Structures are given as structure tokens and as C-alpha cells.
Amino acid sequence: MHAQPLFFGKPRCHGVAFDLHHQLQEIYADDSGECEITVGTSRVDVLRDGVVYEIQTNNLYSISRKIAGLLDDWPVVVVHPIARKTVFVYCEGDPPVEARRRAGPRTGSVLDAFAETVSVAKLLAHPNLSLELPVIDVEDVRRRTTDEEKERIRKRRKRRRNSLPDWTTINRRLIAVHEVIRLDIPTDGIQLLPTNLPDEFTSRMLGEAIRLSAWRARQVSYTLRHMGSIEQVRRTKDG
Q1: Among candidates 31, 30, 29, 82, which has minimal Cα distance to 54?
Q2: Cα 55 to Cα 6: distance, rounded to the nearest angstrom
């Protein structure tokens, strides 16, 4: 899959999602697929050549029940994009007009996906399920948060004292696709591990090797264990 330009004109895929979701739908539908189509009792993002593609930019847990209901009858590819580079676009006025932009300070990694894959880890060993991780660049378009929105956020948070956001994301747009990591079978997960790990390792050793926190390293090992890429041979105090 090559780098894709931004899409212009009227898309075939409609809904309330950000442009990023629609753009990925267009890519995966290609010329022969259909967007937003009912398969069984579920509405799916793309159906192409007998394969269901479900695109989820965050919160994989929210589609876990839908995916589980499709797997016995359909091959399913869960598409979870990873933002390698994010450009923040700040807009002012009504309607919003771009005022400035800046590059995000953080570079994303494929391993970021494991913060979400823990919620579907037990499904990943199913022979009808594949996981695709497009590594992309995105624009995050923001406008100032209104007083009304801040009040709604304050009520939802109840006793939490987190500071209220000054900016609200109103759109996310695809800039480019750099590569796609595909996990079809259990052994594919091994490609995500560093080559200098010993045959037996703990989550702490994994975290040190890939420079992740202990908590994130446990998420990686949990997912890979449930999809069959690695196995637990014994339990230790340090994970």
C-alpha cells in the first residue's frame, strides 16, 4: 500500500466519522468493494471480495462483540491505524479557518497498537481474523472549546479535577500511509519483537528491550500470548 493523497470530492462512504475513517474506507474498498454495508446483522465498514474490513481508529473494545459475531461466517480484517506523525491544525472563527499549525512532539510506533489490542486479544487466534496496522501521518484539526462544551465535560467528570481542554478536535485527516503491518497467523506477531530477546524472557525484559513502560510491555506480551505468538512457560515476580 503506497502513500495516499488527501481525498477530494464526494466520497462513497458516508457518516459522522472524521475524514480519516472515510479515507481509509475508500482505500480498503478500492474499486470493487462496498462501504457501510449490512453483513448478517452487522453494519460493516467495507466488504470487498468476500472479506469484511472493520476500521477502528481507537477503542477496539467497542467493536469486539461485532467482530466475534462475524468470525464464524466471514473472514474479517480489523484495521487499526497508528499515527507515526501528527500535525496539529488550530482553527479560529465560525466557520473555523486555519490559523496556525505545528508538528506533534511525539513519533508513534506500531507497538502503540497494543494499548488497544488487549481488548480483542482473545479473538486474534481465530483463523478468520487478521489485524492490519497502517502506519500513517495525520492532521488533527482543532478549534477552541466553547464554554458550553467545557461545562458538559465538567459534569461528566464529576469529582475528577483534570484541567478542561482549551481545544477540541473537530476532524482528523490522512496525509500519507508509509507501511502496513499485517498479522494473519500467530507467528506473524514475532516480527514485532526485538531480535536480541532471549528464547525465554519476562515482560520487564521485553519493556527494556523496546523501551516501553512495564505496563505497556505487559500489554504487548498479553496480546501476543493470546494470539499464540508466544507462550507462558512459568510465572515470575517481575512479569
Answers
A1: 29
A2: 18
Those residues with Cβ within 8 angstroms of residue 192's Cβ, 6 or more apart along the chain or in another chain = 110, 111, 181, 220, 224
- Tally of CB atoms within 10 A around 28: 23
| Residue given cell 468493494 in the structure block | 33
Average pLDDT over residues 19-24: 95
Q: Which of 131, 137, 174, 128 is nearest to 25 (CA)?
A: 174
Q: Nearest to residue 44, comparing CAs of 13, 16, 81?
A: 13
User: Could you give the 3-state DSSP secondary structure of residue 104?
Assistant: coil
Q: Please check whether residue 223 is in contact with residue 114, taking contact to mean a CB–CB distance below 8 angstroms.
A: yes
The packing angle between helices 214-226 and 203-210, to 10°, is 110
pLDDT band at 185 (very low <50, low <70, confident <90, very high): confident
* Report field, pTM of the whole predicted structure over 0.70: yes
Around Cβ 161, how many Cβ atoms within 10 Å? 5
Helix (H, G, I), strand (E, B) or coil at 4: coil
Distance CA 207, CA 230 (A): 15
- Cβ atoms 224, 210 nearer than 8 A: no
User: What is the spatial distance between Cα 61 and Cα 236, in angstroms, rounded to a whole number?
Assistant: 29
Is residue 148 helix, strand or coil? helix
